[in-house]
Specification:
Structural class: mainly alpha
Radius of gyration: 23 Å
Strand content: under 5%
Order of helices and strands: HHHHHHHHHHHHHHHHH
Number of helices: 17
Low-confidence stretches: 1-15, 215-222
Largest sheet: none
Distance between the termini: 100 Å
Shape: globular
Oligomer: single chain
């Protein structure tokens, strides 16, 4: 007689607590996303019904599409440029060069990172893939964060555009100086953290392998090919640039859609109407910079339109905070940093630029 043995429990039948927790977090994330989307559509349709029905709704949708395409098309060339620089760094820069030329101490590293935009002139869209690739090469945290925040302003292109818009004066000098100082302060603060606390796991692993090459031969993911033919190295660099572009483009698309949605649902007049005092004006211009998500190469000409009616401190806050953090760039940060760290990368520049703008309004008459 054949006796059937009881079947062992399948791992699928008894999910682990970690897997169940991950499923709950995923469902909660999707639920919150649906709630936000539903609220946005409800606001659009309610406003449309009050303002003229289907014709008004069509105009709002058309406005959304126009703003989205404007933001996306403006940002794509800079993301392409940043991705190309990222690919070239991956192939032509090795860890030994970073160890040889860049400081390790938090304060000197933050100061160097704040000035690296003069060497890598990229905007807030292009700087993100460059920073990620440098972290994968073992770049210290403080240099990367300072470079990430300062490069969109402290670079030759933006300096020239700001001078063309405002000339030599308080806005021109204040924008460059305060952008550098705020980026260096935030970079110094991040220099006290550990890479595993800041970077996403995949980026952190490559950062650890690059920083400890003796212990990571079996996990060598380096794309540095010093002995390969030059044509092969360039081909590899452009292949990596394409991978970086498509990886970061999803965040750019989502961020552009959110920025366009905010501009469609929240009239600029609502933000500008409250911007009259030394504190409220700074907050209003910071909110406007975050919502508009204008590229740092052209935002000086937009800020020039507010110079006559807004305080100088609020205009400076617009020009300092906007290039560091806006909707699209904050989402792109998720490709490099942990979600909790992205919150800090938004909050710290916001608070420091707020203090800068209020201090300027209350104490400086230049």
């Amino acid at each position: 007689m054949i006796v059937e043995r009881p079947k062992a429990a399948s791992p699928v039948e008894t999910p682990s607590p970690a897997r169940a927790s991950e499923r709950r977090v995923r469902l909660m994330r999707w639920g919150l996303t649906l709630v936000v989307v539903a609220a946005a559509f409800a606001a659009i349709f309610a406003d449309a019904l009050r303002g003229g029905g289907a014709v008004y709704l069509y105009q709002r949708v058309q406005t959304f599409v126009t703003i989205f395409l404007g933001i996306f098309i403006e940002a794509v060339p800079f993301l392409i440029a940043g991705s190309i620089v990222s690919g070239l760094i991956a192939v032509f820069v090795d860890q030994a060069a970073i160890d040889r030329y860049l400081p390790k101490s938090a304060l000197p590293a933050a100061l160097v990172g704040g000035g690296m935009g003069m060497v890598f002139p990229v905007c807030e869209c292009g700087v993100v893939p460059v920073v990620r690739r440098l972290y994968e090469k073992g770049l210290p945290l403080s240099i990367g964060v300072a470079f990430l925040l300062a490069a969109p302003v402290v670079n030759p292109i933006v300096i020239l555009s700001t001078y063309s818009a405002f000339g030599w004066g308080p806005v021109f000098v204040g924008r460059i100086v305060f952008s550098f100082l705020i980026a260096a302060v935030v970079g110094f603060l991040f220099g006290r953290a550990r890479p595993e606390e800041v970077l996403r796991p995949a980026v952190c692993q490559l950062h650890h392998d690059a920083s400890h090459p003796v212990h990571s031969h079996e996990h060598d993911h380096s794309h540095h090919l010093p002995n390969a033919p030059l044509g092969l190295r360039f081909r590899q660099a452009f292949n990596l640039a394409g991978d970086d572009f498509f990886d970061m483009a999803r965040y750019l698309i989502l961020g552009s859609m959110l920025a366009a949605g905010m501009q469609t649902l929240v009239p600029q007049s609502t933000l500008l109407a409250i911007g009259q005092g030394p504190v409220i004006s700074v907050l209003a211009m910071q909110a406007l910079a975050f919502v508009l998500s204008v590229c740092s190469t052209v935002d000086a000409f937009l800020a020039l339109a507010f110079a006559g009616t807004f305080t100088t401190g609020s205009v400076l806050a617009f020009l300092v905070f906007g290039p560091m953090v806006d909707i699209k760039s904050s989402l792109m940060f998720l490709g490099v940093f942990r979600r909790r760290i992205v919150v800090y990368l938004i909050a710290l520049p916001m608070l420091l630029s707020l203090l800068m703008g209020v201090w300027w309004n209350l104490n400086v008459r230049w």
